Fold these 3 entries.
Entry 1:
Amino acid sequence: MGEVLSAAHITKSYGERTIIRDINVHLNEQEIVCLLGVSGVGKTTLFHILSGLNLPDSGRVVLNGREITGQPGKISYMLQKDLLLPYKRIIDNVALPLTIRGMNKQKAREKAAVYFEQFGLAGTEFEYPAQLSGGMRQRAALLRTYLSSEGVALLDEPFSALDTITKSAIHDWYLDIMQKISLSTLFITHDIDEAIVLSDRIYILSGSPGQITDEIEIAEKRPRARDFSLTPAFLSYKKQIVTALGPGSFRI
Amino acid sequence: MPEHENSRKVRDARAGFQKHVPAVLNLLAIAAVWLMLTEGGIVPNYMLPSPVAVVKAFVSDFPTLMYHSGVSLAEAILGLLIGIVLAFLIAVLMDRFITCRRALYPVMVVTQTIPTVAIAPILVLWMGFGMAPKITLVVITTFFPIAVGLLDGFSGVDQDAVDLMRSMGAGRRQIFLQIKLPSALGQFFSGLKISASYSVVGAVVAEWLGGFRGLGVYMTRVRKAYSFDKMFAVIILIVIISLLLIAAVNLLRRAVMPWERVQENRS
């Protein structure tokens, strides 16, 4: 498995305050890697830099061997909200990245329509986002992210808005779909269980300024059993992560 | 399924109808009081004509009223269309260039503080007695609510949505067309509704202050003849025309923004 994305020595400050310092992360082909940390530690700042929306003060971002620091449009980025545009039908929302690249509307629709079945969205093509449930909206946003990507996606707390039951269902679905499509993803969460269930590797981001303080490999083979989250192996990972996050992480 | 659908439609229609009952009753009550005051001899006819006389005046003068309405409506609609184009250009410029905003915004506000009755005769002096000064006055009164609506819509856009578009590699033009413009539509139509109701009154005021055709001219004539029944008839006609224009804006909004109905049905 080759490396598709790497970020080296990323530092970013806003005014006097350094948000993240000397961050090094990488992502291999087909890998699901999680960036775990408490709120306000700079996870979203890092994603804005990786996606090219913001420039780092120092450091570089490399995608498939080419430097893309500060160049948006190369890596697909799913922001915290689903951000489906309320005035576009689901099919046009999903096909948006294709039309932005200059594909005509009809062709983009055809290309997007192919994936609706697989993403559990069949029949919703011509509905508006307001007509869909939270889980469906999230899947539509994921499909849009997939269509805008050339193999690498950043997901910022993709499932945080969902309730626990919907969340675990969408986790199963997500792992299943990741087997079928070729996408390497780096995602943010502050949910430890979610991180362990989904990831191949976990980066722990902590401190102020935020730094990568630990890297944990989840060796459990995929596809993972549904009761993985109830096994001793899972608990020992959780213990390891809680320790890595440090006592300060659980201040309320 | 279809039966269920139908019964729901019937229920919706009934609810829609019931919503208007208080307003209709209120209007009927006002008409009844008006009728009592005038026909009962409490208020003399030269001060307040009876509704019966107003209806008679409306019927007898109908062709003349329609002729003048056509002129006023043409001025109002032309002025409104030019107002929309102007508002659009100004709002886009002010959104794109902060310097433009700083330069134009105060001037725009000042144009709204100038009393229309004062500026109308000056416009007549500059442009003659034809339609041009009337249309200009309508433009002045209508562009402001639309421009402000659009501008608020443009600047109120969700920054995350803009970031999403940028992350997809979208340029400024695409962000404008796909995000800013559609997001501003709601406020655009709110502004347009206000402007539509101003437009007819704007045209009439301009005609009142100098011209040969239009409802404003008709009003000055019947006023000089002390035909208050005709005066009331034309007032009611102007109200009806304004309401029709507002209804047209609402219809247009429904056609242009079909997703709004979806959201209404869910909530």
Entry 2:
Amino acid sequence: CEENLEKPLLGSLTAGTFPQSESDAILAVNGVYNSLRVWNIHTGGFPLLDIMSDQMIKGSNPGDGTAIAPYDNFSHTATEGSGDRWYKTLYQAIRRANLVINEVPNAEIVMDEELRVRIVAEARFLRGYFYSQLVQGFGAVPLVLVTDPALDLTKTSAEEIFNQVIYPDLLHAAEFLPEKSEYSADEAGRATKGAAKALLARLYLFNGDFVNAEKYALEVIASAQYELEPNFADAFSYDHEFGVESIFEIGALPFPFDQGGNQYGNTMGIRGTPNRGWGFGRPAYPWILMMQANNDPRMDASIIFLGEVLDGVETGGDASTPDTTRVDGDIVEIEVYNQKIWHPGPGTNESFGHNKRIIRYADVLLMAAEALNENNKPAEALVYLNEVRERARGGNAGILPDITVTDQAGLRLAIENERNYELAFEGLRFWDLVRTNRAETVLGPLGFVKDKNELFPIPQSEVDISEGRISQNKGY
Amino acid sequence: QDFKISGTLLDSETKEALIGATIIEKGTTNGTVTDLEGNYQLMVSGSEAVLVFTYLGYSSKEVRVNNQSVINASLDIDFSELEEVVVMGYGSVRKSDLTGAVASVKGEDLLKVPNASPVQALQGKVSGLQVLSPSGDPGATPVVRLRGVTTLNNNNPLFVVDGVIIEKGVSDNSGSGTPLDFLNANDIESVEVLKDASATAIFGSRGSNGVIIITTKRGAQGAPRINFNAELGWQVVANKIDLMNGKEFGQYVNDIDLTEPGPYNVDQLSSTDWQDEIYNDYAPIQSYSFSFGGASEKVDYYFGLGYFGQEGILPKSGLERITTKINTNYEIAKNLDIGLSLSVALKEKQNSPGVVNTALRAWPIDAPYTTDPATGEQIFAEVQGGGNALAAIEYTNNVNKSIESVGNVFAQYAFLDGFSVKSSLQFSLGMSKNKSFTPEYFVAPLQQNETSDISQSYNDNSFVLWENTISYVKEIGVHRFNTVAGYTTQRVKSEFLSGSAQNLLRDGESFWYIDASDGDPLLQDVSNNASHSAIQSYLFRFNYSLMNKYLFTATYRRDGSSKFGPNNRYGVFPSLALGWNLSEEAFFPEVSFLGNVKLRASWGIVGNDKISYDAQFPQIDQSFGAVFGQNEQYVAGAAYATGGNPNLKWEETEQFDVGLNFDMFNGRLVSEMDYYVKTTNDILVNLEPIGYTGLGAFQQIVYNVASVENKGFEFSLNWQDDIGNFNYKLGFLGSTVKNTVLELGQDIGVDSLIVAGDLGNGQQVSRTAVGQPIGFFYGYDAIGVFQTQQQVDATPHLFGQTVGDLIYRDANEDGILDGDDRIMLGNSIPGLVYGFNTEVGYKGFRVGLDFQGQTGVDIYNGKQAVRFSLLNYETRFLDHWTPSNPSNENFRAVSGGTNYTPSNYFIEDGSYLRLRTVTLSYSFQQAVLNSVGAQSLKVYVRGTNLFTKTQFSGYSPDLGASSALDGVIDRGVYPITKVYSVGLNLTF
């Protein structure tokens, strides 16, 4: 009789019975990569870091996504949903990685040993990446290294998480992962030695460890695995996905999420004509003016203007919002879109096919330049900085002359500016300003409050559920 | 002092002896029974004693002794008493012996509302029962709530049709809505609504939301009866939403942009009424049914056949249904009966194109058609504000077909004296398929389909229940026993398979198959899943009546459910009830106007297991793939999917009920009243665990943590009388409810605040929290409109607010306006639900009116509060703030923004009073009928939903919440309709 009441799951596994084999281990690590395409992993679905910088405004129309608007002027609180979704989705990704890291080494799983080592290293790279996002975004957070954590955890400091998890994970990945060239063509997109080192450089820079930042940036450069795309626009174009400049990017297909799509591009895609998305995260007008003043060709490659024709499609934009917004007669906003997420093709689904570039070689060059400058090696720094500028110039000798300044502060600012031009709308500007302590100066007029807005608030529900054991961040 | 009385008791008509009839001295336990000749002897206490003669199926009679020593009496068959049997689960009980709160509705009352679901007609008929029709879509399921909102998850009552438990749609495993549309109301004999724990506990784990028992018609003794019914109706939209016309819209848009002149010259604007464009007038409803029934000594039989067809007022929506019914019993040997109840229904539902909001949002200055400059043909025009609704209708093709079969085969054997055993096999089997096809088309950049696509899905559901019961029904002197015990076992399984593809060879219907697609594997999708569950139960009920005065009922049920892990698999559900027929007491004053009076009290615990079978299991799914490769390929991946909780256990609802039944003025006034307190504990509720556990955003696990109280008062009063040739009836009923959440998982590491009520744009307006009713509205308190910049500067306001915007109250008075100033704004669980009805007859004519309504309920006007872009406006905004029109009520002209933040500006009073039906009928006189050989012929005209008195601005305030956590939000619904119908009933 009792047996009649045993009704197991149909069509899926019960947690605890997975992974058990080599094919399970592959599935499990692919499941961690899957997190990279989850909409909420991109700062809660919306390009908040760009909106919170001086490069982008909220976008879409005033009635749409009103919960995003507070981030544009730093009036967001602990109850806005985006931060909440980002935080929870990062932990979801970390849990998937923890499953691989804790279970795949188990000798009961019979599998190719080389593959086992690689899979664990991939998972550790991804865990390091997700934890770095979490700590950069929220500061001290609970440290979870198992799949079923206790319910009474408290916060662990950001420094401790870097030292206990992020650096060791990435160092392990840098040691055991193959180089990009060692993967077969159909494995492009998996984590590489270069990706781990580039991410290490980025995080050492974030923490002001310029010696290690220089070391890993230069190791990536010396690996000869990467070079700049000759044409700036190809650094994020469809034709050059997994191209020579790509160090780590998220593979995506022009379909809904469960068929391989990534809604990151769709969220920023053109609203209206052609219908490519929601139109959040519009490039800010002051950034456009600055680029125009420099005659920087990267502006046109980074921005879709109304009337512009791309791959045969003319951009009409959103008919229900003004093309130009003026305050007291002065233009403050024009309707434009982010071209870096453009994906060619006929339909609405296309914007799901954009491969988001997490790290590209131009960033590594600029990181190397920055670290070298901080380590008092301005001459070497200028080499890498000007390599980026040369490519941007596109052969036009009349623009973007080589930087020659060698005093540390001047060069520091030149590098910061170059990152602003080169890496716009790639989610980096806000962290650059925070880590260089320049956020108050640059973003203060937009509402940034020092010693508060460097971090997102811990989601209020997390504070409430833990009854305050997980305390709120300062100022929120 | 003792008096000896003797005599004989006969049937008043046949003059046959009544054997085993009871004779009791009134007010005592002293009594005896008649022998085989109908004779009795009894010692009574005195010459003034009163004898009460009772016999099952006969009217009882009281005779004063008055010094007589021989008292012969004859009893009349009591036809009303015969009807006063109330069907309970697993048996029936005499109404006078009933201790529970049970309401009965006759089948004929279900015929008054032209709708596919017989449940619709229960609206306003049963106190404590709330039936809401959120949509006028043909075949839409009503929302049914009994005695408030019992739980945070599924609140649908349990339906039992001829003993078959129907937990969800027979062919639809979504579990939402009420599942009775396989039944033709013409085949229904009666409906009993079981409300208190005494009545529902026999259903144990499934009874906590109340139980609605449906009994279908069976053949009656005598010549075969043939019945034919036909009804034809015409539907029109009951009321339209007041929207701006072209000129008004143009002026409003001009006002958004305060620079002169605005974008529009309003005098030159054309105007399209998009509601007129999409709704059909006089969409027909047809219903025909035929039945044939009778009985001979050893067989009774009933056959029913019905057709129901309804076209929606929206083109391409509709329902067609054929129902069949077979009910039969055979006495195959002495004391051994076998029987069958079987319903089979075929349904075809055309799913309505979702264009109501499209029409409400469309710019009225845009016309539906234009001329193609290339061909000169008329084509669909681009319509701003959400698209061209007529084009959306044209390109939508979505049809559901299903077959549903519900049956019960049983054998029953009676033995000894009063015992019987019954074994029955019950099943409900349903299969449905859905097909949807969209051609390739282009209307506008935002309204196009780049490739044609087809999707198909198949669903099959089976429910099999085997029940074995033994019952003992016996009257011994003054003692009457009605007992049943049983063992039942149930299995439920459903499976779903779907596929989709794109790029069909041709658009014609003969190509709507996946094989007609281009076969591109990247554009094809297949999905298949299944669920299963089982329940095993032991049940027992003991109903005892002493001297017709003292009534006692005890029930016990033990259920084991596969939905719970081994630790908490079984639940025990007991109930106790007492009844006291006060008017049977000797001391009861013999006042002429007061008849029967009964007091009832009951207590019990009933359960709920309405969760998914897999809620106990944390899952790993292989649907989390990644994309790798220079030539990008989707590669499978697996990861944690839904979380699970292996410690789940039964949700338990404890209910106290006290009730009073009385009749007055020789039965002309009949009344029933109840007060109840119902507390549901260990509610199975989906909550988000603490985020770092890594379940993901919006991912919830089921926990047994919440607790909700509902308490309320219910009454019904019915009066009927004749004055000469006039006869008339008046009925009035109502129920109050107070709903409070007592606990919501505080201190267990979950989010103890449930935020729900998403408007569709990410704004969530409803909350559930301790101390408040489930699903209350939450937001800012709008208290006026900013008139001057100085006022804005001096008042706490949201970022970007300016002159002409709503002033939100700084509720916590901290000088800053932020999220902490949001407050409870309203509640959509109505304080009072009521109905009243009247019927007046004169000779063959009869007029009946049914009213129903509710008060104390709020509705969030979600369709008005969502603005994705510049959309048409409701006329409320005509009187908006401008510098020259300093309105303190309606904010300035805007296309969106902070004024659309959730606030009480968008909350409306959902109280209403509706004339649900009015019927005028004429029954032909016998003389006329005899000439054609008919027994009865009635013709009628009827109006449904003709009149609604309400302040609510939407299509209908009669909106239900599909999830109680959302509260009642008008997100834009398929409007309800007024129906004008004519019909006839003919019986041979």
Entry 3:
Amino acid sequence: MARIPDEGMVEKRGIGHYFTHVGLIIGVLVIFFPIWLAFVASTVTQSDIISPPMPLWPGDQFLTNYSKALTSGINAPVALMLMNSLIMAMGIALGKILISLLSAFAIVYFKFPGRRLFFWLIFLTLMLPVEVRIVPTYEVVAGFGMLNSYSGLIFPLIASATATFLFRQFFMTVPDELAEAARVDGARPMRFFWDILLPMSRTNIAALFVILFIYGWNQYLWPLLITTDPSMNTIVMGIKQMFPSGDDYADWPVIMATSILAMLPPVIVVVSMQRLFIRGLVDSEK
Amino acid sequence: MATIKLDNIKKSFGKTDVIHGVNIDIEDGEFIVIVGPSGCGKSTLLRMVAGLETVTSGEILIDGAQVNGVEPMDRDIAMVFQNYALYPHMSVEENMAYGLKIAKTPKAEITERVAEAARMLQLEPYLKRKPRELSGGQRQRVAMGRAIVRKPKVFLFDEPLSNLDAKLRVQMRLEIKELQSRLGITALYVTHDQVEAMTLADRMVVMNGGVADQIGAPLEVYSNPQTEFVAGFIGSPATNFIDAALVPDAPKGASKIGIRPEHITLLPSGQGKLSGNVVFTEALGAETLVHLRMDSGTETFTVRQDGAMALPVAGDPVGVDWGADDEMAFNDKGRRV
């Protein structure tokens, strides 16, 4: 810990200092409480949950509930749904990054007829989220026979105007002289892209990867539409599928265990890539 | 090592003509400096030789072969950029080796050539560092090293010293000159700094508004400028110009007379060819610059005299004189008469 200087520069001292902390702690508690409840619910038995008052401290069913969720689940084993989600999220995140890197590269570094037009067309698609084009997209995917498949989960979501735009902005800050120096050095365009542009954008790529991974992981509506086979369910929609219809009873401990499990991968991605992520958003390291 | 020939090179961006036909013959091993004010097309000319800019019309020949449509990499040139253009994520070593790596030079040879260039430029302690960990002068050296290791036919320099501080600039200037003459590689160097032009050039090209006004050895250009622009641009303080009608015995056809500040002598009031008043003086130690307002009207004169001479007092009326040989007469088109 850095020692706070006695005559703090802009450091707030006294009572205000503690109030700030109390405020922050309360905020954290409010946000964390539901997650805590979910965790508690995932470690007790069904009867503990439905008999009020609900317990506030973890029970002894942790292993039972989690192993039940992971191996058998309700419709499909959670392990399988996690794998599906992982494949979809990675596919979307990496695919989006690859495609938008290449399209931004084309837009910034090549002069071709209709360059501006293409840029604005890409930009326009920003205004068309998945939900707006979901019916025609479904038609197309169904026509290609991609329902209940990884390609059906990934490809319709793989183009990203936002990422293209981001990389375009970054590429435009790269001095032209660098591209010219590479040209004089004998690098052909793809070589320049691979050897120079890509390493220079690695913090941006990392930042984008975090955002896009979470975007892919949290996809709900699209997987819900095109996966009817429980073995293709992704975890986020899978949780909803676990809710009973009609008179069935809900196996809340398993559902809560699934929720907690669903939360882990994004948390791991964010925490492990935090430093790169912040660097990518803050500086452009030229 | 190579000769370069520019044959009636023209360049236009859209409808704007920026270069109106430039002819230069560069001999093997020659150091040519292209100098001119901003926007005169000097950088564009260099970039056309590099192949980074297309040629609208005319021919560029390197070693007798026309290279108009040839990619930069196949022209066997190396270029040093104003902002150095070092690859930020590569170490000094990798920066210098990159071109050779692309050319698929054997590893051992790359290492050897990089080491040699590093020794030449005193970069050996920094080979593993990234460009951002270097000072401006060191970055400049790396950019030079990147050019040297390629062993190109031609060096192209695009204002390579303009981002350095004054002291470093003088030092790097000497190093560039020394390096170029040691390696004997033909060099084309663009600058807006006339001191660089005067000191580096075997021959200099003074560009003005897309035209090469004069091509010649620096001292030849200085003492015998062919146009009013060259007379005014080369030399600091600038040449004094005065309407020919005001000068007694001006040559025929002259509309303006130019006299270099060092060729003027101050005389007591009433003597000499013209008279004026001292506005202010700048004593620089070795020399003194005396600024005058001429009686004829708005013209101002700068006189350079030895620092040991008595300082004129501001406001004093004085006369000025110069030798007839030092007069440079220009016609109304700005050409030398």
